[in-house]
Amino acid sequence: MAKKIDSGENLKRISKFLLDFADALMISGTQTSRIVRNVQRLSELFGCEANLIMLPKTIIMTLTTNSGEAVTSVRKISPDSPNFTRLSELRILSWEALSNGYSLRECETKFREIMAEKKRSWIVPALTISIGNSALCQLWGGDALLMPLIFLGTFIGYVLRRELLKKKLGMNPSFVCAALISALIPGVGAVVFNLNTDIALSTSVLWLIPGVPLLNSIIDLFEGHLAGFSRLIKAVELILSISFGLLIAIIIIGHSII
């Protein structure tokens, strides 16, 4: 049910909330069309119409009331932080807010609760990713002795990338270093124990492949959103960083790729 905008729920405050909501959806890892739908759903709750333009690094939104009053706001997009749990909670909030007629204050409170950093142990995703990459190695025909090496390389690579990102080194250099370590450990182990080096190297960096940016970029491009180009370029940069780290490992090992 649409609410009448009054002095307590003014247009600029609503605009700020909706921009924050759009930014949170973007960095959590969803496609542009879904961001537009969720923001428009919330704007309907407040008796407004939202028109969004999603640029590579900026969100531009014009919010218009039924009386014709309008405000245009600009928001710089925050650094990516994929989180599908948060993404799901944000989408649920947009539906619940519309169904239950939440006030702006209630929406802001629930939004802050969702966005609050919850302390999560990094060891669980690190172990899960390492086990998954080891399983991929076996699926590709890797020897049973190769799986622990892939596990170790993936685990150390994950920890290294996490620490480098915490130190603000940058996404691309962090991926280069993570790919190098992830490939070097099983690669050297494969040479020492006379295992299949090709499989060791080719499966060692699979955990780094940026599936979310690639998928979202393709969806955005098919739906005609400009943000798809920037997402595709970012995904390609990460793939090139992974390739560069893998190449350094191959050179160090002295393995032929021909």
Description:
- It is a single chain.
- The mean pLDDT is 88.
- It contains 10 helices and 3 strands; from the N terminus they run H-H-E-E-E-H-H-H-H-H-H-H-H.
- The protein is elongated.
- It is mainly alpha-helical and 258 residues long.
- The protein has a 3-stranded antiparallel sheet.
- The chain has helices at residues 11-28, 32-45, 84-100, 104-115, 123-139, 146-166, 171-192, 197-204, 211-222, 227-253; strands spanning 48-54, 58-65, 70-76.
- Helix 1 packs antiparallel against helix 2 (32-45) and helix 5 (123-139) packs antiparallel against helix 6.
- Strand 2 and strand 3 (70-76) form a beta hairpin.
- The N and C termini lie far apart (65 Å).
Uncertain regions spanning at least 5 consecutive residues = none
Average predicted local confidence, pLDDT: 88
**Side-by-side strand order of the widest sheet:** 1-2-3
Strand element count: 3
* Global Rg: 23 Å
Beta-strand percentage range: 5-15%
